[in-house]
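@channel sequence for tomorrow's demo:
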Amino acid sequence: MKYVLLPFIILLSGLAGFGQYSSDGLLPAFPKPKKAFADTVWTIRGQTILDKRYKKWKVDFVLDGRQTLLSNTRVRLGGIRVGLEYRRVNRFGIGIYTLGDGVNVNSLAEVDSRINAATLNLAYASLFYERILFFHRKWEWSVTAHLGAGEITGKYRLPDESEDRTYSQLVRPLEGSTLLYFNLNYFISIGAGVGYRYIPSTPEELRSVYNAPVGILRLRIRLVKMVVGAFDKDIRTAP
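structure tokens (generated this afternoon):
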């Protein structure tokens, strides 16, 4: 009897094996469920999961202002920052800073010892890298480094002259800072923090002004996220 049943057992086994494949013979008829996409990045909480709500690349646009601290002369400087955000925690791009207060000094000995009054301005562009150390739906903490190139320009007048002379000096600002952001909604954030700006080879009269701690205020606007989030709820809920 067993010799009669053996061919049927072999045949059924073959059919069962064939039934595990789709009609084209390439894909399983009952494939294993796919895992949801997930990526991980390091934050101060350890490895943090990025799910499908997070886009790998985003546009980063920031209104960026700063003011010197702990100096007898307060100097405000504002500009914009445009770049990209990669995997939620890396931001890099270009900053342009041209809107600011002029600095009035009583001497400019490195140019001419006779100068007793001058007004100078700082403007520069920089490459920046910002690393997010912590993020939440409402809060974010980051550190930023800037490497810049720009110019100090201005005017001065000698005592025996009636016309102003122009002053210009190329500079390379360096700056490090840390900020805390608060997300007002899913596409607008405000940030405040402190940093230190160092500019080598500045005139002695300006070192205490430009080489100084700075207070920073930022407004981040995510224009693309604003538009996409209007149609995608998942985008609006991602921190």
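heads up for whoever presents: The two ends are 69 Å apart (CA to CA).
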